[in-house]
Specification:
STM4215-like, five-stranded mixed beta sheet, about 120 residues, single chain, elongated, alpha+beta
Length: about 120
């Protein structure tokens, strides 16, 4: 998954702790990201053969501090990496953990190799 690999590299470059699907390290740091794969679609063209794979993921940001500068740093890094931001939203403040929760949805495309078909041979 191209998008997942890119996101893992970006979180390392930004120096932000992250995990895929579920952050389990305890105690949790004051700021961390969870990368959640959402959808992989194969775009079909006139010959009914997939030519492009679109991958989408959600990046929940959890922080006890001001999320705005982090949101902007992450957004800039995502755009520089060639990913498309499909949505950003403040999810809410979690009073029990004292974390702000902010989500960024991204999409990226990878060319589907013409020699590999997801369709069964006939």
């Amino acid at each position: 998954m191209i998008v997942l690999e890119t996101l893992n590299q970006l979180t390392q470059q930004l120096g932000l702790p992250s995990a895929v699907a579920l952050y389990t390290k305890t105690p949790a740091p004051d700021t961390y990201l969870v990368i959640t794969p959402l959808v992989d679609t194969l775009e079909v063209f006139a010959d009914n053969t997939p030519g492009v794979q679109t991958e989408q993921a959600r990046i929940p940001l959890f922080t006890r501090g001001n999320y705005l500068p982090l949101r902007d740093r992450i957004t800039t890094a995502l755009l520089k990496a060639g990913l498309t931001i499909t949505g950003r939203q403040y999810v809410g403040y979690e009073a029990d953990t004292r974390f702000h929760h902010y989500a960024i949805d991204v999409a990226g495309r990878a060319a589907q190799p013409s020699s590999v078909s997801p369709w069964p041979a006939r």
